[in-house]
Amino acid sequence: MPPYLTFTDKSHDSASAGCPLVLVHGHPFDRTMWDPQVAEFSADRRVIAPDLRGYGASPVTSGKVPLSRHAEDVAGLLDLLGVDTFVLAGLSMGGQIAMECYDRFGDRIRGLVLADTFAEPETPEGVRSRNAMADRLLAEGMRGYADEVLDRMVAPYARAEVKAHVHGMMTATDPRGAAASLRGRAERPDYRDLLTRVTVPALVVVGADDTYTPVADAESLARSLPDATLEVVEGAAHLPNLERPKEFNRALGDLLSHVDGAA
């Protein structure tokens, strides 16, 4: 595990604090994607949000970074921080990393949040598309791509400050890091069977207007999980945690309370 990953670690000092919460961002964002959740939940528990390898202030690994490498990084960081068990939340690519984490060290996970993501492996066309996009980002940088997809990442009607935050995260991402993760994500496994073996409570969240991972994808995830709650967030697209933080936090808070009560 690279000990140099950057991360936010907000700790609650009380011995009665709830189960730690670990937040895994999507592509091509960084840990500030989770600012509303860090602010909301660090009052009663430890909240950890890393910059994935190649994103934010974490160093870049060029070439190809598979989801398994990101999962190993998450595990190593939590080992470094002395966090044994936790609730794990991931959005989009972060959701797929969360599934990979569950496959590798599910015994440490007390609750699972899968937001605006899907479990299927990449299609042949998707492999070509992701690798072509990786080539484009390396050749052109991030700004053109960010301009093109902003109104899909967040809804066209999203607040101006949310749009600015999301656009800023995308344009600040190193193209080499984004490209490496795109190539790795193109080779991801099929997580559908894994979902049927998840033994912890799960929350599936999706923005009602998400065109990257539509509501139907979230419904499929929720059906596959043995103990899942589905939350469709109205007035949001691919980043409901930023677009509608109050609604997202309410659903996440319910899961955390359930996990804390069971503990």
TrEMBL record:
One of its GO terms (molecular function) is hydrolase activity. This is Alpha/beta fold hydrolase. GO terms for cellular component: membrane. The keyword Cell inner membrane does not apply. SUPFAM superfamilies: alpha/beta-Hydrolases. InterPro entries: AB_hydrolase_1 (IPR000073), AB_hydrolase_fold (IPR029058), AB_hydrolase_sf (IPR050266). The keyword Hydrolase applies. Keywords: Hydrolase. The lineage of its organism: Bacteria, Bacillati, Actinomycetota, Actinomycetes, Kitasatosporales. Residues 21-251 form the AB hydrolase-1 domain.
